[in-house]
Amino acid sequence: MTKKSLIELNKILNDKTSGSTEIVLELNKFFQNNARDYEVINTSILKAEKKLAHFAVINNYLKDLKKIVRTNDHNKILIFTKGFKNAIEIKYQKLYENAKEYLLKADNILTISNSATLLEVFKRLKKDNRLLKIVVAESRPKDEGRLFANALAKHKIKVELITDAMISLYIPQIDAVVLGADAILKSGNIINKVGSKSAALLCRHCKNPCYVISTKDKITSKNKFHQTKQNPGEIWNFEDKNIKIINYYFEEIEKNLITKIITD
User: Fold this and answer.
1) pLDDT by residue (tens digit) across 164-199?
2) What's the pLDDT tens digit per position in 92-131?
3) What are 219's strand-pairing partners?
4) Which of 83, 122, 125, 190 is the most exposed place for a label (fewest CB within 10 A)?
């Protein structure tokens, strides 16, 4: 691989603030730009599989891409990558059509973290509901919620940005919680950013609906979620033998805490 392509790939693989759909779209663009270089493609697929194995949508994408690469036809790779982006847009519209009857009942929605899928859904919802307001939890420690709040505001959607610890204050005031998903397990449980389960539990307590909105390509055959510790320095760059700092990005939310999982 050239130094330039390696830098581009590593930037995508080390992205800790974007949602899985955003990352797979960036990967798709990378493969489209390198469609004629089989060495780059094959090396990049191996690196992506190793680094991003926890994202169902990326695993499914890479499986499909590998089938195309085996044909040794760069034109087919170009057709696949161009078609993938168009297919995502179609999925977003279908997803919104399926979610609309539930979301139009909610003027005030709470969510957490950053999600390209939810951004597309909320953009469409804003056109049908001018009263829409989204409460976004900041999503520590990488503060992806700030990025999502900014993205929503650019589309003239009213936003309130809160700390994760303030979720319990807001659940009684909102009409629904809407979560994305990094994966949907075979059991029906979902994997999403930490804080999602707290929001779902509070919804049950307050008798508010908790919806999960996700494209079907995030459904996985896996039935177990393996928690991975992240860099503790992102929480607090401090060392003391009596202090143990724990940093997890994702958690499992049981299906009985979810009112409905909505897909395309």
Assistant:
1) 999 999 999 999 999 999 999 999 999 999 999 999
2) 999 999 999 999 999 999 999 999 999 999 999 999 999 9
3) 184
4) 83
What is the CATH topology of the domain spanning 107-262? Answer: Rossmann fold (3.40.50)
Structure token pair of residue 123: 């953009």
pTM: 0.88
pLDDT of 53 higher than 90? no
Name the token pair of 46.
Answer: 């191996």
Burial class (CB in 10 A: 0-12, 13-18, 19+), 204: middle
Rounded CA-CA distance 67/113 in Å is 33
CA–CA distance, 123 with 106 (Å, rounded to integer): 14
Distances (CA, A) of 164 to 38, 41, 97, 99: 44, 39, 30, 25
List Cβ neighbours of 162 (8 Å cut-off, separation of 6 or more). Answer: 135, 136, 137, 138, 169, 170
| Helix-helix angle 20-33:38-51, to 10 degrees | 160
Return the domain boundaries, the chain: 3-89, 107-262
